[in-house]
Amino acid sequence: MAGEPQADCLFCKIVSGEVPATVVRETDTTVAFRDINPQAPTHVLVIPKAHYPDAASLAAAEPQIAADILCETSAVAADEKIDGTGFRVVFNTGSGAGQTVFHAHAHVLGGRGLNWPPG
């Protein structure tokens, strides 16, 4: 059921502490941790503690938690000192967009030039 932890979800296991992660921030509704395969000097994932398969389903069911994620992306950027030089927030929604873990999450990327359009 949406919102409930899923036994086979890597990010649900990170939320529960079953799988370790380098957590950089945590709130009542979100967890932010370093990506294990960083694509930039700063690459942090911000996830909801509740399980939703992608950003679209999260926004439809829990718009306040979706807003919490966006607020946390800004806080991560400030903590990582990339807020002044620029950073990118990416939500991949669906396998065709590159989503590989089907638990909603935002990527916070920075610390290098980020070209447009993204590749």
Secondary-structure blueprint:
Blueprint: H1 10-16, E1 23-26, E2 30-34, E3 42-48, H2 55-61, H3 63-79, E4 87-90, E5 106-110
Portion in beta strands: 15-25%
Content-based structural category: alpha+beta
Q: Kindly state the percentage of residues in helix.
A: 25-40%
Taking all Cα atoms into account, the compactness measure Rg is 14 Å
* Shape verdict: globular
Tally of individual helices:
3
Output the strand order for the largest sheet.
1-2-3-5-4
Number of strands: 5
Q: SSE order, as H and E?
A: HEEEHHEE
Rounded average pLDDT:
96
Given as residue ranges, the uncertain stretches (5+ residues, pLDDT < 50) are none
Main β sheet profile: 5 strands, antiparallel
Q: Report, as a whole number of angstroms, the end-to-end distance.
A: 34 Å
Characterization of the model:
A five-stranded antiparallel sheet has the order 1-2-3-5-4, with helices on one face. The longest helix has 17 residues, at 63-79. The relative contact order is 0.21. It has helices at residues 10-16, 55-61, 63-79; strands spanning 23-26, 30-34, 42-48, 87-90, 106-110. The termini are far apart. It is globular and about 40 Å long. It has 119 residues and is of the alpha+beta class. The model has no long low-confidence stretch (mean pLDDT 96). Strand 2 and strand 3 form a beta hairpin. Helix 2 (55-61) crosses helix 3 (63-79).
